[in-house]
Design goal:
Layout: H1 3-10, H2 12-28, H3 53-65, H4 87-99, H5 111-125, E1 133-137, H6 140-159, H7 163-166, E2 176-178, H8 184-191, E3 199-201, H9 213-223, E4 227-232, H10 244-249, E5 256-261, E6 286-290, E7 302-306, H11 309-316, H12 345-380, E8 384-386, E9 394-399, H13 405-414, E10 422-426, E11 429-435, H14 443-456
Parallel strand pairs: 2-3, 2-4, 4-5, 5-6
Antiparallel strand pairs: 1-7, 6-7, 8-9, 9-11, 10-11
Helix pairs in contact: 4-12, 5-12, 6-8, 6-11, 12-14
This protein binds pyridoxal-5'-phosphate.
The site of pyridoxal-5'-phosphate (PLP) has 14 residues, from helix 6.
Protein name: Pyridoxal phosphate-dependent decarboxylase family protein
Family: Belongs to the group II decarboxylase family.
Cofactor: pyridoxal 5'-phosphate
Length: 460
């Protein structure tokens, strides 16, 4: 064995203690460090011929890279929809590396059973029936891609062909209808050979990002045949929701596959005050929920659900003599784009086991309260105005006069040490948005963000 590797093996217990201490220190400073530090990334180094051992690697990481990383795990990183990592999720992530399972085959240990138990818990968390089968994938983009791959196979079933066998060309033109689809949807369509142009925008209700059901009905009538509808439960700009019950009801009259992108909006189901926003979610044929956002597990985790695991296996089956059979409950290797992968479910399992439905409901409720509080604060800052009501956890606002992208970028820049906000355009108006989805965030953080905005506005 290489001497550096052998030394690390000998000193493993002590080294892990050193890593633990370093991690606790970093997390302890998370709330106070600059949210996006004004530090350039270091110049890339050449590959070391001589290794430094674990302790040396940790020291080099702490020295060169840590100062330039953002506090995205902290309480005032409000850009995109980011989430954090609960203490138990962090422990679960560590255990994932410790056990290094590849939970995709029944020929192996119980890894995939742990994943199935976790999928069952999440189904309950979101109030879904056991008609939905699920698996873990790397993020909502992959989850949307898998959902749309199953939709593609469903269109094939209707047309008497199999796109998975014969290629997407066997389908002819495909229409994917959506009000305010996330950018990952056209990306998924490009990957699936359906093409970005398959996405047909449907008008939304006035001033909203929610699809207008009457307009959707017109589009379905015009489509004159089976198509795909992507309904949105939580849009990134304003946190708006399609009326899922109204959308699903259209299936009585028109044939379509209903995919719901509930990447972060699905968490509305946890909160009695917001659950109505996702009423009807269970009726979907496939559903995407991101877990590395509002479940607060580390990056690389989303849930993908469908009522048609048989069609899913038609697409993703990975027949090989050494892998398990397909059967009625196919091994996970036959259901997702990756074959080998980490035991992603474990971080989710840990946080659900540690805090339960109640603990995660509290996180959702606190985040929505923070969003409401920031919305109120923004309205009270001279020179700012809200662009949309705060429906869940997203605050979309802009400058009251001359809201151009440059001035908004300057505003975001001025507050970047204190809070991270991301730009957008809503209803033709450039804007900034703050999304709350981190378990660490509280009212004191909202006051700090509001104070930073109030201070910065006169300077842009
Ligand atoms: C974040 C998000 C996605 C994409 O998720 P990734 O985890 O970045 O792949 C898709 N849809 C919605 C609504 C999202 O918020």
């Amino acid at each position: 064995m290489h001497p550096k590797l052998a030394a690390d093996e000998d000193g493993l217990a002590r080294l892990l203690e050193e890593v633990r201490r370093h991690a606790a220190g970093a997390l302890g400073r998370l709330g106070e460090r600059a949210v996006v530090p004004a530090v350039e990334a270091p110049e890339p180094e050449r590959l070391p011929e001589e290794g430094a051992g674990l302790a040396g690697a940790l020291a080099a990481f702490a020295d060169r890279w840590e100062p330039a990383l953002s506090a995205s795990a902290g309480p005032r990183y409000l850009g995109f929809v980011t989430g954090g990592t609960t203490p138990a999720a962090l422990a679960g992530d560590w255990m994932t590396g410790v056990w290094d399972q590849n939970p995709v085959s029944s020929l192996d240990g119980a890894g995939q059973e742990l994943e199935r138990e976790t999928v069952g818990w999440l189904r309950e968390l979101f109030g879904l029936s056991d008609g939905h089968h699920g698996a873990f994938v790397g993020g909502a983009t992959v989850s949307n891609t898998v959902g749309l791959a199953i939709a593609r196979e469903w269109l094939g079933e209707r047309a008497g062909v199999s796109p998975a066998e014969d290629g997407a060309g066997a389908l002819g033109d495909v229409r994917v209808l959506s009000g305010a689809a996330h950018s990952s949807v056209p990306k998924a369509l490009a990957v699936l050979g359906l093409g970005r142009r398959a996405l047909t925008g449907v008008p939304t209700a006035a001033g909203r990002e929610a699809v207008d059901p009457a307009a959707l009905e017109r589009a379905l009538r015009e489509a004159d045949g089976p198509c795909v509808v992507v309904a949105n439960a939580g849009t990134v700009n304003t946190g708006d929701f399609d009326d899922l019950r109204a959308v699903a009801a259209l299936r009585d009259r028109y044939p379509f596959w209903l995919h719901v992108d509930a990447a972060f909006g699905g968490f509305a189901a946890l909160s009695p005050a917001h659950a109505h926003l996702v009423a009807g979610l269970d009726a979907a044929d496939s559903i995407c929920v991101d877990l590395h956002k509002w479940l607060n597990v580390p990056y690389g985790s989303a849930l993908q659900l469908t009522r048609r695991p048989d069609l899913q296996a038609s697409v993703f089956r990975n027949a090989a003599a050494y892998l398990g059979p397909l059967g009625d409950a196919p091994d996970l290797v036959h259901l997702t784009p990756e074959n080998s992968r980490r035991l992603r479910a474990l971080a989710a399992w840990f946080t659900l086991r540690a805090y339960g439905r109640d603990g995660h409901r509290e996180i959702v409720d606190r985040c929505t309260a923070c969003a409401r509080a920031l919305g109120d604060a923004v309205e009270a800052v001279p020179g700012l105005r809200l662009l949309a009501p705060v429906r869940l956890n997203v605050v979309c606002f802009t400058l009251a006069d001359r809201p151009d992208a440059e001035r908004l970028a300057a505003l975001a820049d001025r507050v970047a040490g204190e809070a991270f906000l991301t730009p957008t355009v809503h209803d033709g108006v450039p804007a900034l948005r703050a999304a709350f989805s981190n378990w660490r965030t509280g009212e004191a953080d909202v006051r700090r963000v509001a104070a930073a905005l109030r201070e910065a506005v006169p300077h842009v």
